[in-house]
Amino acid sequence: MNPKPVPILLSARDQLHATITKYLSTLGADHPMVVLERPANREHGDFATNAALANVKAMNSKPRELATKIVQHIVDKKYDFLERVEIAGPGFINFHLSKKYFGNMLSTIRKEGEKYGNSIMGKGKTVIVEFSSPNIAKPFTIGHLRSTIIGDAIARMMSFSGYSVLRDNHLGDWGTQFGKQIVAMKKWGDENAIERSKQPVRMLVELYVKFHAEAEKDPTLEDEGRAWFAKLEKGDAEARRLWKKCIDWSMVQFNAIYKRLGVSFDMMLGESFFEDKMDEVIADFTQSGIAKESQGALLIFYPGDKYPPLMLRKKDGATLYATRDFATDKYRIGKWGKDILIVNEVGAEQSLYFHQLYEAEEMVGYCKKAQRKHVAHGMIRFKEGKMSTRKGNTIWLEDVLAEAVKRASTFNPKTAEEVGLGALKYNDLKRETIKDVLFDWDEVVNLKGNSGPYLQYTYARAKSVLKKAGGAKGAKAGSVKNAGSVPTQTMEAGKPGALEYMLDQFPEIVARSTEEYAPHHICTYLFALAQEFNTFYNSRKIVGSGEHEAYRLSLTEATAVVLRNGLKVLGIIAPEKM
Ligand code: ARG
Questions:
Q1: Which of 67, 131, 213, 571 could form a disulfide with 345 if both were Cys (CB 3.0 to 4.6 A apart)?
Q2: Residue 271 above 80 pLDDT?
Q3: What is the position in ligand 1's atom list of the atom closest to the CA of 135?
Q4: Ligand 1 pocket by Cβ (under 6 Å)
Q5: Residue 60: what pLDDT?
């Protein structure tokens, strides 16, 4: 039996777009250009278009005349989502949405609940979101924390927008440094002590630092390190055992961080996974003539020296970080199909490297540049004070998380974990990822301003209103499960307010953030929404407002849904109480 066809409901914007485009075609325009915008100033409508101006040449008419025709055509359609349409200036058309429209929107939010804002934008498309990617036996840095938080948000946004998302952690678990690490462990390490430690990475790093200090005095240590790495490459049992230990110990500590942050991966294919896939890569690049020998090393040269050459193999035959990246991407397209998208969330300091990588992959025929996205993040700098980054002074992530939670516990010890970690996440997400962050604890963990706690607080406030209403008289609008249409007859007189207008925009904001790999649009939006809700809350009675109560509660409820969905897509938990 065939399932019932699901009617496709076009948004008001899509309908206007389709109607105007079709109408312009019937008037003779070949490729009508129609864009519907959200004007910065709502006086200019809820949507506006310059279609009459943009197509006037093609139509051989005057802009205002064409605008008048378009408006008449739209008015004839008698759309119930429109209050009025007007022509402004040289021929702009401004659309004002009706109360009915906003009432339907609130009912939709109530019906869709946690799905409100999702879409099918990415339907049928697979994307690998690779993020976090810390290095084994090295500190999980504040930079890796940024990658973890931003990458997780991007993966969430893309799933919410209909993509099939595969989350990958490209662990740095291979390289010559493991030879040195093994030497240090054998000479000065205490395996049992590391095994028992809660922070084994700290001990591994101390050993690594000691190696370098000792090697200054005794250069033969470096040779020993190289020898152990050669053994590791050849599969020597002892070398393999100690290397594997480093991974297991590090992962204990890294996994604890992921768990606290609520971040998961579908796979963790570290660099070592590709060690036996290097020969193919080297063959692909040499046979195609893209890589050439130069002083014993193998280098990729770019046409017109667009980028500096990229080394594929060292003089001594060793492969590099880049070689393993090529193998990784070849493996990915082999396994998930040649049309997949691949997102690398990695610090901006690797921007040139990713340009070189993507260009070379297109040259050799692995992935096209259009399938690739380097989401680059800026650096975090600390304001002077407790967490200063004085040289040689590692910032341990556990300490950063602990400080955030400690600060959040002054609001409420019960929600300190969610609020503290939410604050850290929001701080990494609220500006364009590429920008540097001047980390300021007073800004990060604050109940006011553009912060995670402010949004969580606003959500909790909305929930408490709904709870009060539910408690007082079993409010009709107290819960999203209570699907039904919203009582618009009690909607305030005049144009539907700014809060309704904000709520309506959530789906398009999610879409834009997803398209641009830019979670900060969601943050900016949520902050504005929270401010709008607080204005609404402070200027009106909600519970006990007589005939207005039901409608105001439904607005409160819709705000709670959108705040919650928005925070969730950023990976931030919204506690019910604060
Ligand atoms: N492990 C690397 C680092 O800490 C990041 C890896 C990024 N991903 C990649 N495919 N190269 O710098």
A1: 131
A2: yes
A3: 1
A4: 130, 133, 135, 170, 172, 325, 344, 346
A5: 77
